[in-house]
Queue: 2 jobs
Job 1
Amino acid sequence: MNRLYIYPIILTIAFALFSADASPVTASDDCPPLDRTQPTAAHVVTADLDYAAKTVHVRQQTRYINQTAEALNDLAFNAAPNRWSGVMALGEVRAGDIALDFALDGTRISFDLPEALATGCEVHITLDFTLALPDATGGPTRRKGYFGHTPRQINLGRWLPTVAPRIDGRWITHQPIMIGEQDILEVADWDVTLILHNSPPDVLVAGPGIGGRVDANHWHFVHASAREIAFSLSPQFREDAALTHDGAVVNAYTLSATSPMAAAHFLEVAAQSLSIYGNLFTPYPRERLVVVQGDFPDGMEFDGLVFVGDGWFVNWNGEPRSYLTLITAHEVAHQWWYARVGNDSALAPWLDEALATYSEYLYLELAYPQITDWWWHFRVDNLAPQGFVDGTVYEFSNAREYINAVYLRGVRFLHDLRGDLGDDAFFALLRDYATTYDGQIATPDDFWALLTAEQRELTAATRARYLRQPDIDG
Ligand SMILES: [Zn+2]
């Protein structure tokens, strides 16, 4: 080839490479048409976890596609770990190779993009940060012990920043408080490599999705179309597994101090409720569900992984009539009411909490029908619940008031709706809600939009009894 021709080719290639490196934002002419079936964000994470020091160094690469109708000049992430002071040190935010000025204000990370991101275009953001995990053995961090460490366990729940949803031209971040949750999470694709340092020899990592141990200190998990990705680590885990009738695997991780009977009951309730809900709502879409005995109070839902608190195992009476049964069935139900159908957990918590609590009853109706009367008394009426079901987490002065109104009056509300509509229409409504808003963030208006005009009429008196905003036609 003539030397004179080679020069321009080399220059063209060099320019193309340089352009690709210099511009972190895909040029608008090149952006494909919107495909709303794929998540707006895909995260590739490498995390070095020092088990002895209780620290994690994270490099999180996020590909974000602008699926809004407007060009975006800035971006925001929600960073739950920064609810605690002294936990999160955010070292660097980059778009492509360009280091960005950023603000970490409360639980929001915000920054301007180096150039406008047109609709359909994508940007590659890198976050580099360190977490000093909170001690979850006492104080307020104990109740939120799904993120933190105890002598028996390290939990990584809500540990990775998520892109804030863009709603009505605003990035949504909620003020964290101790009552309820304040997350609003879009589905995203997750690929996480955990590298363990200074860990006890027998440590196991419980994680959702597809994956597991790669070598002695190296774990890798891929979790597609998920609200988040949570892990639990312990050198004291016992691992049990069951297969549901529909072919999903349930992996149960219990602490070695727990009786084998309690561990077996936990696994049985988890697998049985997963099958029952799959039949009642929509089929469970994942290959696995991971259920973990959390070394902290109560329980907590994540996508593909749930925690049930240690206290329910320690105090288990050996019978189905127990919080171990109820909280397990409750957290499994969040795989539908939270994980598949998302909602704003701060402003409309009833959409997941009332439904998850009522799902406990639906589980008992089919699995243990002889104890449904006990459930109404023990779980609900005994506490004489008061308050509006559609309250936000910000309007209650303590957790008991919040649970009584949103969860417990919530189940009375749903049961009365069922009475108004009849069983066939009520279960059709739940199936319709689970299907229509799968992978989305649903609002109360979305829920009510599924009712026919006649059903709105039929349920008007019930709505007026329980809701602050009973008028759904406006
Ligand atoms: Zn719940």
Job 2
Amino acid sequence: MRLLVGLSGNLNRPSRTRVLVEAIASQVVSRGGWRSECFDVLDAGPALGATFSKDAAAPEHRSVWDKIAACDAIVVGSPVYKASYTGLLKHFFDLLEPTLLAGKPIIVCATAKAPHHALMIDHQFRPLFAFFGSWIVPTGIFATDADFRSPENLGDGLSAKISKAAEELRFHFAHELNSPKLG
Ligand SMILES: Cc1cc2nc3c(=O)[nH]c(=O)nc-3n(C[C@H](O)[C@H](O)[C@H](O)COP(=O)(O)O)c2cc1C
């Protein structure tokens, strides 16, 4: 059974972003052969922002880090803050070893108030994971408040897009695009 880890950059709960990350993870799991565990940066503990090395990381921070290192694929999401992902999410990634996400498939998603900030996915998230050498699925998922019935409940409007991203992830593994032979 493969492990999908969801990581959301939200700093508040309830979080629309975390709900979106969990919805994407459950679409992948529903196709079979996967289990998922979802976290947000708050799960890494209140000390995350004042942690400057892995050696200094609190146990709850290391636990999220270790899951990211060990998993087969990741769903990363963030609320758009000042036209980018949240600073604390970037800090989490700044502390990771540069090779840790190489070749790892990633589905990216974001939530925001302004529809035009959908560009955050392509202008901010994709370059970050290109740096890590990750395999980013083509379909990114972006939601505004209008896509939610409530902060805890995603509406149905994004289901086709979420399914497409989950299919792209399935395609990746079906065609062994993560095979060492390609490296
Ligand atoms: C500090 C801060 C900065 C924000 N900046 C933006 C922004 O630049 N563009 C935007 O469309 N929404 C912005 N928002 C709104 C959030 O992106 C939006 O409400 C998001 O869905 C919240 O996600 P969450 O429920 O997971 O926290 C901002 C919110 C906060 C608190």
